[in-house]
User: What shape does this take?
Amino acid sequence: MKLKLASGKRSRGVAALLSAAAVAGAMGLGATPAATASEITSADTRSKADTKTSTESDTKLQAAGIEAWGKNPGDFIAVEKALKAAGAETVMANVPGADLKNVTATEAQAAYDEAQAAEEGDVSTKAIDIDAFGVSSFWTTRGDPLTGEVWYSYIGVWDFKDDYNYYVHGPGGVGMPDTEPVDGVAIGMNVPTCMRFIGDTGAAFTKNGYDASSKMSLRESGEDSVVFNVHDGGHAEAGGYYAGLLPDSGGIAKTYRDGGIGDPDPCSPEEFAEFGGSFFYEHNVFGGGTWTFTLSLGAFEISYGEAGTEELQKADSYSYFKP
Assistant: This one.
């Protein structure tokens, strides 16, 4: 199951600070989310230029890249191949662990592998190993030569190492908390007003590559942002059967369109230079299922309702698309 959002026309403004004060707390694994991403629709009416076919094509493009990562975590070449097979013309990767931005998949692969080797064996004084998981991201483009329209996608991905585990000490006992920890995954964008928001996508996979998207739920979505809950209790049962059924890797994405015949407001080079995004993943232990957050291009800050929470956040920060 891939999680999708319907498209909507952009308002005139760049990334605004979001607050979850008006949004219900994240659910525990056994709860039913108030809404999943596939149930969210835009109140705005799309223009004829944003056809259903183009929107579905880019949703499939995003999903293809995320699925390739979920089934082959850490394989940038596989992701590039899947994205191009789905219609992407340009694929650029960002590897925060190696401090690389807008490089080819081949360059990203070499840097990622080196960074992974350097982190091997790192330990943390906290409950979460410093190398428990990693994040990366991709920029893609897809153009229509007949209309001149170009679609841009920013895709953030994460992956936990296979031997990572933790024990949850909650009211329900070791490994059996009353409220399961819920991770937060988010994208914050800075988007010039000349671009039109197309849609969001999210998916998660088990460590064996099976779809675990049912363990994700949409927290909040906007034209410049999206936040998902990840019900990540799979690491609470070290090596157990249950651990193999819940999210171990995955990704989320946002897509925008610029230009085309009849576009009264195509992006200038100066405006296009503002186009950027940040991807965040925060893993928590003992945090339960209730938290609030604020999100902007520069930060994803979570406040937990449970005492004694320990968390680890990793991010691809301030990634600007370079044509």
